[in-house]
């Protein structure tokens, strides 16, 4: 009796990566995680006015946050070669044709944007969100970021906070003193110009 | 073992984009090549590759045990003295390893020979565990390959299970994953491992190696100042042990994947030690330190390679006492080892090397790389395989 020598099953939908691996300027996981130590709320808006209603004294900040999300969407939105591929993931009429200097593609319309710490100049953050009406998509009626992070709850949920953290208690960090203490060997050795990019063997 | 031509799947490049396999072509050269595949019998796979892989791994662990308890050997392996305890402790604590890839020379008959053990930062994981698996499924489904075709490749299944074991062992539900900036290939590999870990129920966070921080209380941090307590790093220990943050390693108390004792298992000094301990073993090539005198009867020519090196750099061939340089590179300051020269088998105009994977301590599958050159695997191509 011979046994199969390969993996019996792989969930293909889980392996699909229409989303770029490039991290956003600020990842949404950043909001969620830093909130482990200092709780941080984030709101999702589907238009500019809802934001202005929340911040009647700071309409310009809402406009800036909206604009930042729009700009970010241009840069990071998932891209598809055909309209049908895009609509398969995001639903009928949810995609737009975009032409740039480097080529043309389809990408989903921004369906909302997430804002956090709007009034704080340093920690303020805004990014585009997408949702899907496609029955084939795991994002159907969910909020999803351009790097593929899917929020729990359906699209009616507009306020998010942090999950309480982990089984193992994490040590507390008060301050990072320095960065860049790993990785210098790569710079030193890469001047040699290997034809392969990685450091794997 | 045959190399057979094969019709590539229609539109596989588009499929690669959908699945996020972005490095199938590198530097304008094809890397993933499905215009042909290798075919094995089950007997070849199980007797000649799988069983020897398990055995070679145990032999390597035997050498590891010797090295950690010997100052002379730690020195021979060029482990910086301040980190001997770090490595010894990691070994004695039996820290779990995730994976390794043994490079084997095998032509379909006779014993496979161990070329080296990529125990610390092996790549070509995604294209092995997932992409060649998908290739087989689809080529069987569309009738190009016989229905009973199989593949020696349970990598993905075993990776997920291994992450479950690791999570249970360390009582964790979150891990960091790290690689260097500016490499699609490494980022893709790490993303694949994140996917496997997520399937195993872990929350994963990514940080670039260069962005790792050190906190006022001696912990490593990510860019959000969250502490790094459990971390997969696609970055070699021989680098980490020599960089500015090395002195913080023992205080930071991170469970690393791979664990620090991989600095020994991935070291080329392992090869002469294996030969010393298991001289004449059918799966080993004779090997010596370069300041030892090799037994000239054991090989007609010798390959000289640095104790630390990547991607076939700094390799020379020694034949009749004459040394000719085969590849340049930045390595070698830590010394060299000599290994009996074993030609790679030739299939048409290609020289073929087999990577045999371990997940934890279990053999889990193979990957096949071809190169037009006999020794340096510089611009090698990846080909899928089947078992019939």
Automatic annotation (TrEMBL), chain A:
Name of the molecule in the record: UPF0441 protein YgiB
One Pfam family this sequence matches: DUF1190
Gene name of the record: ygiB
Region (Disordered): 176-201
Classification lineage: Bacteria, Pseudomonadati, Pseudomonadota, Gammaproteobacteria, Alteromonadales
Organism this protein belongs to: Alteromonas halophila
InterPro entries in the cross-refs: Biofilm_formation_YgiB
Top-level division of the source organism's lineage: Bacteria
Ranges of biased composition (kind: Low complexity): 184-201
Automatic annotation (TrEMBL), chain B:
Keyword hit for Nucleotide-binding: yes
MF (Gene Ontology): ATP binding; ligase activity; metal ion binding
InterPro entries from the UniProt entry: GSPS_pre-ATP-grasp-like_dom, PreATP-grasp_dom_sf
Keywords annotated in UniProt: ATP-binding, Ligase, Magnesium, Metal-binding, Nucleotide-binding
Domain Glutathionylspermidine synthase pre-ATP-grasp-like: 12-387
Keyword Magnesium found: yes
UniProt-recorded name of the protein: Glutathionylspermidine synthase pre-ATP-grasp-like domain-containing protein
Organism listed in the record: Alteromonas halophila
């Amino acid at each position: 009796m011979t046994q199969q020598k390969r993996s019996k099953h792989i969930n293909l939908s889980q392996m699909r990566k229409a989303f770029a691996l490039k991290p956003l300027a600020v990842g949404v996981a950043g909001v969620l995680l830093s909130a482990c130590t200092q709780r941080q709320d984030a709101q999702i808006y589907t238009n500019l006015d809802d934001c202005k209603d929340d911040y009647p004294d700071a309409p310009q900040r809402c406009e800036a946050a909206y604009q930042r999300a729009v700009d970010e969407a241009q840069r990071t939105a998932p891209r598809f070669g055909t309209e049908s591929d895009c609509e398969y993931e995001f639903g009928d009429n949810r995609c737009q044709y975009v032409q740039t200097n480097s080529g043309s593609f389809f990408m989903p319309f921004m369906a909302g944007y997430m804002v956090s710490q709007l009034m704080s100049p340093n920690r303020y953050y805004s990014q585009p969100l997408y949702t899907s009406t496609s029955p084939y998509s795991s994002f159907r009626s969910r909020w999803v970021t351009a790097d593929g992070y899917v929020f729990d709850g359906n699209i009616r949920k507009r306020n998010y906070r942090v999950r309480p953290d982990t089984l193992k208690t994490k040590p507390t960090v008060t301050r990072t003193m320095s960065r860049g203490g790993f990785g210098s060997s790569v710079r030193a050795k890469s001047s040699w110009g290997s034809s392969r990019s990685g450091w794997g063997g | 073992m045959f190399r057979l031509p094969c019709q590539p799947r229609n539109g596989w490049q588009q499929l690669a984009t959908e699945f996020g396999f972005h490095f199938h072509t590198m530097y304008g050269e094809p890397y993933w090549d499905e215009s042909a595949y290798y075919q094995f019998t089950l007997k070849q796979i199980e007797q000649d590759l799988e069983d020897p892989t398990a055995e070679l791994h145990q032999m390597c662990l035997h050498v590891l045990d010797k090295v950690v308890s010997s100052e002379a050997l730690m020195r021979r392996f060029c482990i910086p003295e301040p980190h001997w305890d770090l490595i010894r402790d990691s070994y004695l604590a039996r820290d779990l390893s995730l994976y390794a890839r043994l490079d084997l020379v095998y032509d379909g008959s006779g014993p496979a020979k161990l070329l080296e053990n990529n125990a610390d930062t092996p790549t070509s994981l995604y294209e092995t565990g997932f992409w060649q698996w998908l290739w087989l499924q689809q080529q069987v489904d569309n009738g190009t390959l016989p229905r009973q075709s199989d593949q020696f490749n349970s990598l993905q299944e075993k990776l997920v299970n291994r992450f479950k074991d690791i999570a249970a062992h360390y009582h964790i539900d979150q891990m960091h994953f790290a690689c260097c900036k500016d490499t699609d290939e490494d980022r893709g590999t790490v993303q694949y491992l994140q996917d496997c870990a997520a399937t195993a129920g872990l929350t994963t966070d990514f940080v670039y190696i260069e962005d790792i921080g050190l906190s006022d209380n001696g912990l490593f941090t990510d860019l959000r100042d969250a502490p790094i307590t459990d971390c997969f790093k696609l970055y070699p220990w021989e680098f980490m042990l020599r960089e500015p943050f090395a002195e913080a390693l023992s205080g930071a108390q991170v469970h690393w994947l791979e664990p620090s004792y991989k600095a020994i298992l991935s070291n080329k000094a392992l090869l002469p030690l294996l030969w010393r301990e298991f001289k004449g073993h059918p799966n080993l090539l004779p090997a010596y330190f370069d300041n030892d005198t090799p037994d000239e009867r054991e090989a007609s020519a010798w390959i000289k390679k640095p104790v630390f090196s990547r991607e076939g750099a700094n390799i020379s061939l020694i034949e009749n006492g004459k040394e000719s340089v085969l590849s340049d590179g930045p390595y070698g300051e830590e010394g060299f080892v000599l290994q009996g020269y074993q030609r790679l088998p030739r299939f048409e105009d290609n020289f073929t090397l087999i990577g045999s994977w371990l997940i934890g301590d279990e053999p889990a599958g193979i990957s096949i790389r071809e190169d037009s050159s006999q020794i340096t695997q510089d611009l090698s191509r990846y080909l899928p395989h089947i078992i019939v």
